[in-house]
């Protein structure tokens, strides 16, 4: 974890990768990234345990792997991660894909767009839709590329206005936000999915987890976890709470 001292960039222009307010934590992720599934689960559970629900919010931002890699996030690579990453956080919800290959999600862009669109309703709506979409993919084997699956998942949260979300998706009102977040991430300071940023510039890429691939790269070999330090999430959230208190 690196610590920033100044939340503004050169010439007084704030770094677009940082949260806009001290009550939010920016979290760059993709929805079909297993490391991000672990991170988002740990963020939620740690926030709840620390009693910070309703005080600190997660600004989920798009780190679309398919745009960075210019290819589909390959199922063999994703499948190879499940047993390894699932062992770190079993309660996050995991299952090997059970459907036919042609029902596997080919893109996460519509779902990432939906998470951004839900921010127009509230931070809570966006957070809960993001978490529900992760569970729909990882634990339930649903094709989150599909509009009706996204809307069904939104309905299951009980907090998302599904009609408003459908209108936003049909008009593409949040599409530019996904593009802008991809552009910001590609600018050099967002290293991976997940990468967490606090208001003061503190950041952590793949928080607490150090991994490597053996017997080939993603889609050929398999990951090995060399280190896992979940305590980093308490450190991040405690620091975010302190920044919020200082701002008041």
TrEMBL record:
<feature type="domain" description="DSBA-like thioredoxin">
    <location>
        <begin position="24"/>
        <end position="201"/>
    </location>
</feature>
<dbReference type="InterPro" id="IPR001853">
    <property type="entry name" value="DSBA-like_thioredoxin_dom"/>
</dbReference>
<protein>
    <submittedName>
        <fullName>DsbA family protein</fullName>
    </submittedName>
</protein>
<dbReference type="Pfam" id="PF01323">
    <property type="entry name" value="DSBA"/>
</dbReference>
<dbReference type="InterPro" id="IPR036249">
    <property type="entry name" value="Thioredoxin-like_sf"/>
</dbReference>
């Amino acid at each position: 974890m690196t610590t920033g001292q100044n939340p503004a960039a050169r010439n007084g222009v704030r770094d677009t990768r940082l949260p806009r307010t001290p009550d939010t934590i920016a979290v760059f992720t993709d929805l079909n990234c297993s490391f991000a599934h672990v991170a988002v689960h740990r963020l939620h559970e740690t926030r709840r345990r620390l009693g910070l629900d309703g005080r600190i919010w997660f600004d989920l931002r798009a780190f679309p792997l398919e745009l960075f890699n210019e290819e589909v996030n390959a199922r063999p690579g994703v499948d190879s991660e499940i047993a390894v990453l699932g062992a770190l956080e079993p309660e996050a919800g995991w299952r090997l894909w059970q459907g036919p290959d042609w029902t596997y999600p080919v893109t996460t862009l519509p779902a990432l767009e939906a998470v951004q669109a839900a921010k127009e309703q509230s931070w809570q709506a966006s957070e809960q839709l993001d978490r529900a979409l992760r569970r729909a993919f990882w634990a339930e084997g649903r094709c989150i590329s599909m509009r009706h699956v996204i809307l069904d998942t939104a309905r299951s949260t009980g907090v998302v206005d599904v009609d408003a979300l459908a209108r936003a998706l049909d008009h593409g009102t949040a599409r530019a936000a996904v593009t802008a977040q991809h552009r910001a991430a590609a600018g050099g300071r967002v290293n991976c999915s997940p990468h967490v940023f606090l208001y003061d510039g503190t950041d952590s890429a793949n928080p607490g987890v150090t991994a490597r691939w053996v017997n080939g790269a993603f889609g050929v070999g398999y990951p090995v976890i060399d280190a896992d330090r979940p305590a980093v999430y308490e450190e991040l959230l405690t620091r975010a709470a302190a920044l919020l208190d200082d701002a008041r």
